Amino acid sequence: MSRLFVIRKSIFAQIVLWAIATAAIITFGLWLLTNATIQRTSRQALERAVDVDLAGMVDIYASGDEQELAERIADRLALQPRDADPAHYLLADAKGRRIAGDMTAWPNLHAGLSQAGEVRIAGNRHAYARATQLSPDLRLLVAHEHRDIGILLRQVALVFLTGGVLAVLAVALGGWMAAHRLAGRIERINAAFRQPDDAALAELARGSAGHDEIDELTSHSGNALARLKQLAAAHRETTDHVAHEIRTPLMHLDNRLVKALAATPDGETAARIADARTEIRGLIRMLESLLDIAASEARRGDRHGLAPVDLSALATRLGELYADSAEESGHRFQLDITPGVVVEGEEMQLTRLVTNLLDNAFKFVPSGGTVSLKLDRGPLLVVSDDGPGIPEDQRESIFEKFGRGGNCFGTEGAGLGLALCRAIAERHHLEITLAPSQRGARFTVSPESKR
Known about the structure:
alpha+beta, Beta-Lactamase, 3 domains, five-stranded antiparallel beta sheet, 10 helices, rod-shaped, disordered N terminus, phosphoprotein, transmembrane, TCS_sensor_his_kinase
């Protein structure tokens, strides 16, 4: 089934199949045309033979008499050629009584009109005949049996069948070779888009000789990917530099506030300094979250750094930690983990994804509420609660940067927690959605849907 799906999906395979079908249809059409031509030609030859034979008999009667015509009919019947259609004759009087010939009864043909048509002769065989009126009291019928062209038609059909099979095989082989070559060239481009590393870009550069449209597309794709990679690298370098330049002064300022807090005996001043430190740490966390989101988005689709991660063990470990916290906060925590669920990913990133979802749930579910973590094969990760939920008008924006649902969704109320979850999920070819639920919020993480 998967093989059939790949064939249906590949445009090159579809082109080959269409070429094979076209070759088969053309061969079949040519056979039908040839078969009809042979039958029509055979029929026309039979009609001409009857007309020529009848004309010769009429000439014999015109130059002689009835007796001579009867003798010539007898001679014709006695000397039937082996390679011609068997001929039959009937010379009859005005009432249809036989005078000469091998046919005993006059068929339903009008002699006065020289009518022609199919007749049945002895042995239930069919023949083509034409009648003519020689005199008021004498009429003549000449009939030739249908030549058996069945053997010829079968031979022609066999020739076309053999030729058609060979033509289809030739088209299939040639089309497969051409499609395989084109598919390989396109695959290099797709591989470079899926994983734009130096090796893939070098492969594009080697394959772009500029001979045809595919080579031109390969060259343009390689250049575009190289430029995008340079821009992404420059963007990451700039953001890292800006983050460092901002984070370092903030950390220094925080250290000064710590010293000021230690040296300040005034309680009101100390409280204000502590509030300032809280805001500074919040800014640092927000900055780190933005950098994490940018890093995850920039590495979307990049397979480097991914390794098999036992998601079941990871979820169980986190579930045990949150179970202890739930007892202290007065929440009920339900854990349903299917063992043996393994995914390709980064363990630290996946840990942040699960902890962000659980933190949001425990943050907004009041004491006495229920939070559940479920993991099934697929993988399918579900974090749900019975809290106040998310208003309908905010359900689409909670995954955006600085998006907020309810009071404050995200990292320390900055609205970055779920945006980071989405970036991490996309990095691992997963998608996170807010599923419909009768009460509370229900977040699901599952493989990306095929579009």
